């Protein structure tokens, strides 16, 4: 991957995240932050996959980063966390695998379709588990700061 490809991919990810935020009526002052959080989650996912971590671990770490960053920015901007979570998840959604699954089921290639189905389930589960872990990290961090006061 060249630097130019990396920059195009990053700009595309940011743009897709912001565009989805516009589609679901996220307030204007949360769009840029949501785009940056989505880009952060995607970059963590991408570098994990490139480093040999696999799609499931990459999605887990990306979702965890999105969850932690969303809570931090929600506190900073005094806005609900979901305004940052929902658009930021767009780059991690396993749309390609879901499409291949449906296509192969329609073509009668059930073995290939089940392979894609397993991938979709594992990726969706890792995203959900990443959000669960981010909530745990946020609560531990909150208790740590409360005890320091």
TrEMBL record:
InterPro entries membership: ThrE_2 (IPR024528), ThrE_Dicarb/AminoAcid_Exp (IPR050539)
A single BP term in Gene Ontology: succinate transport
Descriptive protein name: Threonine/Serine exporter ThrE domain-containing protein
Bilayer-spanning residue ranges: 6-24, 54-74, 81-102, 114-133
Membrane topology reported for the UniProt record: Multi-pass membrane protein
Gene Ontology terms: cellular component: plasma membrane
Record domain Threonine/Serine exporter ThrE: where: 11-137
Family as reported in the entry's similarity comment: Belongs to the ThrE exporter (TC 2.A.79) family.
UniProt keyword terms in alphabetical order: Cell inner membrane, Cell membrane, Membrane, Transmembrane, Transmembrane helix
Organism field: Levilactobacillus senmaizukei DSM 21775 = NBRC 103853
Pfam families xref list: ThrE_2
Domain of life: Bacteria
């Amino acid at each position: 991957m060249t630097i130019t490809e990396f920059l195009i991919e990053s700009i595309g990810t940011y743009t897709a995240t912001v565009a989805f935020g516009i589609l679901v009526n996220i307030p204007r002052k949360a769009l840029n932050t949501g785009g940056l959080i989505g880009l952060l989650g995607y970059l963590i996912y991408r570098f994990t996959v490139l480093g040999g971590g696999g799609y499931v671990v990459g999605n887990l770490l990306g979702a965890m980063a999105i969850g932690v960053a969303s809570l931090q920015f929600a506190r900073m901007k005094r806005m609900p966390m979901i305004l940052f979570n929902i658009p930021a998840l767009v780059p991690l959604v396993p749309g390609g695998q879901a499409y291949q699954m449906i296509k192969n089921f329609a073509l009668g290639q059930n073995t290939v379709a089940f392979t894609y189905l397993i991938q979709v389930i594992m990726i969706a589960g890792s995203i959900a588990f990443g959000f669960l872990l981010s909530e745990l990290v946020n609560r531990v961090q909150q208790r740590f700061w409360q005890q320091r006061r």
